[in-house]
Amino acid sequence: MERRDRSGLTEQEFLADYRAGDYERPSVAADMVIFTVMEREQDNYRKLSGKELRVLLIQRGGHPYLGAWALPGGFVRPYETTEQAAQRELQEETGVDQVYLEQLYTFSDLGRDPRTWVMSCAYMALIDSTKVKLQAGDDAAEAAWFRFSYRLLRESKEMLEDGYVQTHQYELTLEGESTTLSAVVERRRTVTGEATSSTFAILSNEGLAFDHAKILAYAIERLRGKIDYTDLALHLMPRLFTLTELQQVYEVILDKELLKAAFRRKVGHLVEKTDHYTEHGGHRPSRLYRRHWEGEV
Question: Which residues are catalytic?
Fold first, then answer.
């Protein structure tokens, strides 16, 4: 016997009469934070190359925010999931698709897009820069890698009767070949006896479209938070690498220097030696390592 609702309708009858247009619906976008690590130019060829954390941005070729820089992304099509939309955007912008990809958060603040009610399901991708071929999408004037910096400006803590509010303000700086973008983002964490919550707010913004400064802040904090207990950094490495190169990747993500001996103990179970060595000019060869799949948890 079919179940009927309070109006006496079966599910089939209810669905036949259902009108989705009776309810206001948002548009849904998938936006991509695509991180990579690149070599820093050295004046002295005898020095080992340094590393830089970079993020991919596109310059908007149409309204709104014409000429501003934004994260790659687009609207989710009717026949795809948000993850499929993110993978499509990634392939269109970089030419690669088999990379680390994880969902960050759904950004749904009112007014975040001047066109209409748009919710963004944001994703983070980590890719080896040597495999990338940049190509701006149809709605973009240009695609480029920007050097990424996210540094603490100030912090404060306010005690509550049953907890506290901790506030951190960060300066986000993105440096391109001829353009520098910046923003100040505030993260507020409220802890009480009943709940813990975190919010992000953009205090100032120079050159970034929409609320993408907030999405970038969320992404780097996620990456920094997970790098200590996961193998995420290895997704930014080529197939073969030195331990020094791997340490440099950790350092540019965390924005701090690490002790060599402690670092090597920490990542020892994630890598394995090979019989290959570097062939750098100007200094002694270094052993190359690769990912140790059995060392992952």
Answer: 142
